Amino acid sequence: MERYVFQVQGSAIEPYEVTIQRDRDNLIAYCTCPAGEVGQYCKHRFAILSGNVDKVVRGAENVSRAAALLPGTDVEDAWNLVLEAEARLEAAKRDLAGAKKKLAQSMSS
Predict the structure, then answer these.
(1) Distance in angstroms (rounded) separating the CA atoms of residues 26 and 69
(2) Could you give the angle at the alpha carbon of 35 between the alpha carbons of 4 and 67, nearest 5°?
(3) What's the Cα-to-Cα distance from 39 to each of 42, 73, 98, rounded to whole Å?
(4) Cβ-based neighbours of 2, under 8 Å, separated by 6 or more
(5) What is the pTM of this model?
(6) Using the 8-state DSSP alphabet, how is residue 13 labeled?
(7) How far apart are CA 12 and CA 32, in angstroms?
(8) Which residues neighbour 3 within 8 Å (Cβ) at sequence distance 6 or greater?
(9) Whether the Cβ atoms of residue 39 and residue 87 lie closer than 8 Å to each other
(10) Exposed/middle/buried for 60, CB within 10 Å: 0-12, 13-18, 19+?
(11) Residue 39 — pLDDT band, cuts 50, 70, 90?
C-alpha cells in the first residue's frame, strides 16, 4: 500500500490535511476540509491528484508520486468524467463570451 500525506492551505487559518492512499486498484483520497470530511467534492484532493503544488505547504515533493497513483484505480473513470466536463464547461464559457461580444457589436451597429 502506498500512502502520502500533505498539508494544503485552504480558506482556514490552519492548513488542511490531505491523504492519498492506494491499495491495489483502490484509491482513497481524504481531506480534513469541511467538504472532504463529509465526502463531497474537495478542491484540495483534486489539486493533489492534478499534480498542483501551489497551495501545498508540506509534502510538495511527493505530489507527483501521489498523482501517479490514479491510473488503473477505481477512481480513474470518475476522474476522467470530471476532466471532460470541465473541458466542456470551458468551451461553453468561450462560446458564451463570443456570443455576448457578437450581441454587443450588433447592438452598436
Answers:
(1) 10
(2) 30
(3) 8, 18, 37
(4) 21, 22, 65, 69
(5) 0.82
(6) S
(7) 11
(8) 19, 20, 21, 22
(9) no
(10) middle
(11) confident
The tally of CA atoms less than 13 A away on the side-chain side of residue 61 is 0
CA distances from 94 to 88, 90, 98, 106 (A): 10, 6, 6, 18
Residue at grid coordinates 489539486: 47
Helix or strand run (H / E) with residue 92: helix 76-107
pLDDT at 109 over 90: no
60-84 tens-digit pLDDT: 999 999 999 999 999 999 999 999 9
**Is pLDDT above 90 for 13?**
yes
